[in-house]
Design a protein that fits this description.
Largest sheet: 6 strands, mixed
Structural class: alpha/beta
Helix content: 25-40%
CATH superfamily of the largest domain: inorganic pyrophosphatase (n-terminal core)
CATH architecture of the largest domain: Alpha-Beta Complex
Number of domains: 2
Strand content: 15-25%
Distance between the termini: 44 Å
Strand order of the largest sheet: 6-7-8-9-11-10
Number of helices: 13
Shape: globular
């Protein structure tokens, strides 16, 4: 298949990848399906090209994604990272995948940024430039889609392991091909991944039909907090530390909850406000229709896509963050 590029892969990026013997792959903190699928999918591509690869994550792979091929290969050890860098003896690059802001690289970001060349592959419209060489294309459905096209350009064979990971990346970031970012190109790529042996029903079972009882209990508690505003166009719900403790679930279990209020006919924007133990309030926004939630998130130093965005606040209560966000959404909708 001849895939058309809206934004061409930088030739210098291709040269650097071809020449590198050792590659460190990183992504944003609290990685989602696109981040993890892109990471492990690109690792498989690089290994086919005879590169040594080190996948670093700030935290263990969420149990929601531990079904991904090679998920166990990711390391959270900075000591192992240091040993890999030393062993590379200068022949090394770092590639950040699906990361729209260097601050989202986590606590070890300075260690990564010390290495050059530092490559960035991302599709967030709110991307804040960092790294040595960047390929940022907000017209792509997912970073997974970009990694697939990079493999084609590098003439790297797509293995089953790679195909599975990239399919999950694309599937999750397009809402199972429901969002407006899904283009004919996206479906063509998905079809080629299926031809490598990926079974959609198996992926769907892992993603959507494998909830624990603890997750369902948490879902019940979170849904009970839904409040509608702005003529029922805004739905806001929250999850607290107390809910997590009572349900036995984890904060990772809330992934996907936000799609439930978004499904209400009148709702244009759904919001999930999450309280973390370190005093951070994290906010996820999902939209349908005319409201650009990336622009709303930008007002709180966040970002994302037109229909999916988020931000984090320190030093403010959940109630204060919710109030400020309500005002911002009201302005955006009126």
């Amino acid at each position: 298949m001849n895939v058309r590029h809206e934004m061409k892969i930088p030739e210098r990026m291709l040269q650097v990848i071809r020449a590198a013997g050792n590659v460190v792959l990183v992504t944003h903190s609290h990685p989602d399906g696109d981040a993890l699928g892109s990471l492990f999918g690109f690792a498989a591509i690089l290994e086919v090209l005879d590169k040594r690869v080190f996948c670093f994550l700030e935290e263990k792979v969420s149990h929601l994604y531990d079904f991904l091929p090679s998920s166990s290969r990711a390391s959270t050890s900075l000591e192992e990272y240091r040993e890999f860098v030393v062993g590379a003896d200068g022949d090394i690059i770092v590639v950040a995948l699906d990361c729209g802001d260097e601050d989202r690289l986590g606590k070890a970001k300075q260690k990564f940024l010390e290495i050059e060349p530092f490559l960035v592959i991302d599709h967030h419209r709110s991307h804040r430039q960092f790294g040595t060489i960047s390929w940022v294309d907000p017209h792509r459905s997912s970073t997974g889609e970009m990694v697939y096209e990079l493999a084609q350009t590098l003439e790297a064979p797509i293995t089953y392991e790679c195909a599975y990971n990239l399919y999950v990346a694309i599937c999750t970031d397009t809402g199972s091909f429901r969002y407006e970012s899904t283009k004919p190109r996206t479906m063509h790529i998905a079809a080629e991944l299926l031809e490598k042996g990926v079974r959609p029903e198996e992926v769907s079972t892992h993603l959507y039909d494998s909830s624990s009882q603890e997750r369902l209990k948490l879902m019940e508690m979170v849904l009970s907090t839904i409040t509608l505003y702005d003529s029922n166009r805004v739905a806001i719900m929250h999850v607290s530390e107390e809910m997590l403790a009572e349900s036995g679930a984890t904060l990772q279990d809330v992934e996907g909850f936000i799609d439930l209020p978004r499904s209400l006919r009148s709702v244009k924007v759904a919001v999930l406000v999450k309280e973390a133990s370190n005093g951070t309030v994290a906010v996820s926004l999902r939209a349908k229709g005319g409201c650009d939630v990336a622009e709303v998130a930008k007002q709180f130093d966040g970002g994302g896509h037109r229909n999916a965005a988020g931000f984090r606040c320190q030093g403010k209560s959940r109630e204060q963050v919710t109030h400020d966000l309500r005002m911002a959404l009201s302005r955006a909708l009126n």
